[in-house]
């Protein structure tokens, strides 16, 4: 009997050990997949000059559970300081999800209600126009209040509360002036070329920094007292006590303390971008797509890739922008970068994507625009970009809500040359000040801290620490859909596949027919910086991307989608990484 029991114990131990080895192997395999996906997209962005520095965090709280961080490029280009997980970064409008979490906490604790109207805050705001007084806190949070993104510039329209500049400091534009704008404004349809007042609320969806800024200042003001400049400190005090402290976010600031080493503060850049044309193996023309900004001297232009040699080019600048790039020598032996075509699918707007090449193969495909109205999966064709002895890569598109959300490589092909690129050096660092509407977009944080926030927004905090109930409920309330991101914001009649809006969060609905889960996202952008949080609650998966560069936006149609350029680099990276992870990682469900 004892011998039999011993054999059972030994067998159980052997089975446990085998399972542990299998789990460790599976976890290592998943980590390798994640690393390969992140590397493919991030390395390409650095190489092409789309990004100066990149930080990526991937949080998987299902299955094994892990948080991996990846960093690339420079936090400070001139000083050569590498981007690091603790580099302090301007997160722009991702500040909004801190503010709306505070709103959700206040609602959960019943100190305010989402249906509370601005007329109920007479002590804080004073007298408002009748319909403005009917705006609710929910409408401020989901951008259906009919409030402008920002007050007009005084040089364009001299009205109460107009702005002296695009982003004035608190010293140049006070809380009193901010409130004066709200006292004088009425809800309008800002989707029109010439905005007109609306007759009722909610107004058509329109993204607004001022509406979230007002929410934050109301939260930072003692009930019944007038909003003042000190309301900003009150708001950040609430952020610190209710979000930063419980999540152990020790490196998130409104103003970075003088004690923080300067080398930790990431500089932001707005580099120029260009596309290269090849004729008979020579670089014939370089088209400037975005002139960038903050250039004090003409930047260096490097022609790289394409399998050739000898091409040279030079840039000219005017008023801080690159105005032209002239080819000085065409070189020889160049071939154009590979091109990707999407055929069929009966779309109302065609998606655009580019192949990413490494090690002679196509290792990933970057979707620049997702298109719209696809009825079926389009065929993917990849041509060019390789030598005569190679073979074309193949890839498969994946749809959700009528859009191409990802394209995964099924065969990398062979013989591909590094894509031909004209890389333009970045200019000087951008400078941003803290405005009175800082609750809408002025926090500075690190990759590690934003990853902690993203994990909490999944309701699965890092280290499995238990979230305070009010913090957890704050995220739940803020991530609940309240409006349709359309001219008609009514949620009940929102067209299938159209994004929904929570309190600042954007929600991409699930597409059961294509096995696509719901996605909850928020992006941020300031001159020199772009950031993105990408959440997949059903999978317990989150992706955070910080990029210390931004572009001014280029019409992708003009370049056929064959250039790694987007108005928000972090958004493109996060969506491509996130959707590829959904397709390539096994679905394990959430714990």
Description:
By secondary structure, this protein is an alpha+beta fold. Helices cover 25% and strands 27% of the residues. The chain has helices at 2-48, 96-108, 122-125, 130-133, 137-141, 175-184, 209-219, 230-244, 447-457, 469-478, 569-584, and strands spanning 53-60, 66-76, 81-82, 89-90, 188-189, 196-197, 273-279, 282-290, 300-304, 309-318, 321-332, 339-343, 352-358, 361-369, 379-383, 386-391, 394-400, 403-411, 414-416, 421-424, 444-445, 483-484, 500-501, 506-508, 519-526, 529-536, 541-547. The strands form 9 sheets. It has a 9-stranded antiparallel beta sheet, sandwiched between helices. β23 (500-501) and β24 form a beta hairpin. It starts with a helix and ends in a 7-residue tail after the last helix. Residues 7-24 and 554-566 have low confidence and may be disordered.
């Amino acid at each position: 009997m004892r011998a039999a029991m011993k054999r059972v114990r030994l067998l159980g131990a052997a089975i446990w050990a085998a399972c542990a080895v299998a789990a460790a192997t599976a976890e290592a395999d998943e980590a390798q997949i994640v690393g390969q996906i992140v590397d493919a997209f991030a390395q390409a962005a650095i190489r092409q000059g789309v990004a100066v520095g990149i930080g990526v965090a991937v949080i998987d709280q299902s299955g094994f559970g892990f948080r991996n961080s990846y960093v690339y490029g420079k936090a400070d280009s001139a000083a050569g300081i590498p981007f690091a997980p603790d580099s302090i970064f301007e997160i722009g409008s991702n500040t909004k999800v801190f503010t709306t979490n505070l709103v959700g906490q206040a609602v959960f604790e019943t100190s305010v209600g989402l249906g509370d109207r601005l007329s109920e805050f007479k002590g804080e705001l004073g007298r408002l126009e009748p319909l403005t007084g009917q705006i609710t806190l929910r409408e401020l949070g989901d951008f259906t209040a009919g409030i402008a993104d920002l007050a007009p510039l005084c040089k364009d329209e001299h009205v109460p509360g107009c702005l002296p500049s695009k982003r004035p400091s608190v010293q140049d534009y006070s809380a009193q002036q901010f409130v004066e704008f709200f006292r004088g404004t009425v809800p309008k349809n800002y989707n029109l070329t010439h905005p007109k007042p609306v007759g009722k609320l909610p107004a058509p969806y329109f993204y607004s920094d001022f509406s979230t800024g007002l929410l934050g200042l109301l939260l930072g003001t003692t009930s019944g007292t007038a909003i003042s400049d000190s309301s900003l400190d009150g708001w950040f005090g609430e952020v610190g006590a209710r979000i930063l402290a419980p999540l152990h976010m020790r490196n998130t600031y409104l103003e970075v303390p003088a004690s923080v080493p300067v080398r930790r503060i990431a500089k932001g850049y707005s580099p120029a971008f260009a596309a290269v044309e090849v004729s008979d193996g020579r670089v014939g023309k370089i088209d400037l797509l975005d002139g960038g900004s903050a250039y004090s001297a003409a930047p260096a232009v490097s022609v790289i890739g394409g399998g050739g040699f000898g091409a040279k080019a030079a840039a000219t600048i005017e008023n801080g922008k690159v105005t032209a790039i002239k080819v000085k020598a065409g070189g020889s032996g160049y071939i154009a970068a590979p091109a990707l075509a999407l055929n069929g699918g009966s779309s109302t707007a065609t998606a655009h994507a580019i192949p990413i090449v490494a090690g002679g193969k196509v290792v990933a495909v970057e979707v620049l625009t997702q298109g719209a109205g696809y009825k079926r999966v389009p065929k993917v064709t990849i041509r060019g970009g390789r030598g005569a002895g190679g073979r074309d890569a193949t890839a498969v598109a994946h749809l959700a809500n009528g859009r191409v959300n990802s394209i995964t490589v099924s065969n990398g092909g062979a013989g591909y040359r590094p894509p031909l690129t004209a890389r333009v050096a970045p200019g000087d660092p951008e400078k941003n000040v803290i405005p009175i509407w800082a609750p809408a977009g002025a926090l500075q944080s690190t990759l590690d801290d934003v990853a902690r926030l993203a994990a909490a927004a999944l309701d699965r905090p890092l280290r499995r620490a238990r979230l305070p109930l009010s913090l957890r409920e704050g995220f739940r309330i803020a991530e609940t859909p309240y409006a349709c991101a359309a001219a008609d914001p009514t949620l009940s009649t929102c067209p299938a596949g159209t994004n929904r809006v929570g309190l600042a969060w954007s929600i991409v609905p699930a597409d059961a027919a294509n096995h696509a889960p719901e996605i909850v996202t928020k992006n941020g952008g300031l001159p020199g910086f772009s950031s993105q949080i990408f959440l997949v609650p059903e999978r317990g998966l989150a992706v955070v991307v910080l990029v210390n560069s931004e572009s001014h936006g280029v019409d992708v149609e003009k370049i056929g989608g064959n250039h790694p350029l987007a108005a928000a680099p972090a958004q493109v990276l996060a969506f491509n990484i996130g959707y590829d992870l959904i397709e390539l990682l096994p679905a394990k469900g959430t714990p």
